[in-house]
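Table S2 (continued). Query chain:
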Amino acid sequence: MNKAKLTGSAQIFLVNDVRAAAEYYRDKMGFDCTLLGEPIEFCIAGRDNHHLMLTQSSDSENISANKKVIADMWDAYFWVDNIEALYVELDQRGVTLDYGLKLASYGVKEFGVKDLDGYEIAFGQIVK
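Corresponding output:
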């Protein structure tokens, strides 16, 4: 019997306003966004076959970024093949930076951004 293979994954973020969050991910971060539900309460945001899911929260108390528990912790981390190009692209799009491009002590060049709900998303490239 063949072992099943995982083919993808997605973090799920609770958000205050799913439409506004989808617009931010689309316009500022370059994700394609599919809004779902009637009324709209869910979004699948994807870029280069990697995804985040955004779902409308009925209570803003439920929205909690990891940084509220552990300082300087991300909510999502994406590996990229050209960190400088992505940094320039997102900076030109007007994304809210959490921290600028830097070489981390663990051998990864990375930067972080914040979304409208305070989630921190980092992008990194292993430096050889």
